[in-house]
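Class, look over these structure tokens:
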Amino acid sequence: MPSYSVRRQRIKEFKDICAGASDNIAQQVLEANAWNVQQSINHFFNNRHLYPELKQGNKSKLEKIWKGYADKEDPSIMSENGMIQFFKDCGVNPESHETLAIAWHLQSSEMGLVQKEEFVDGFSKSGCSDKKDIKKQIQQVCRSLSDQTQFKVFYKWVFHHVKEDDKKKTIPTPLAIQLWQIVLDKQKNNMSLLNDWLEFCTSVQDKDMKVISRDVWEQTYDFLRETQNIDNDYDDNGAWPVAIDEFVEYCQEKKK
């Protein structure tokens, strides 16, 4: 454990970013994250609901903000133009994974749709009451995805988020390809086989691999992180899904 003076400094650093957190909460979160300040901040912003004693945001103010983004015909959902403006107000690139990060933070139930209840309740639980609070919250959530542990939680959630319904166990391969291009874009420097994987999936999406299962979705991330070179890193005795074994064969055939 760090010395007393170091602990006090880290509590101060944590509280400077995590508005509303008391010394007790700051210490609790820091202890749970081995006194790593950035990791603790990431945890706090993504799990603020675990600390109900924190001050909640003003729902009345959030409902007024919502009206500026709401659809005129159905004010219970965000309009397309409203969503573009919301992303702009939050400093979010509408073509990046950050839009999904917002959906993850709000635990949106439907892809490409933000509902009033999700918006108001989600940002209230995050302690937000105005646009400045919301922007700060969203930007911190996006930054938190630079932590691989947080990113993997987010990545797994994406699969469940885009399914048509809870009973579905797969998603269409074309959709998975689009999502990998968006979600893994900032990871590609650490995934030398990503483009080859996308090329392979595109080549079989109308033949042998029309859908992607949860297992393939999740293990693809691990495989691409762990395997930078087929010849040196791939273990053919590993318990990878058949789709990944077929991808390896595809890569080996290309080299011949």
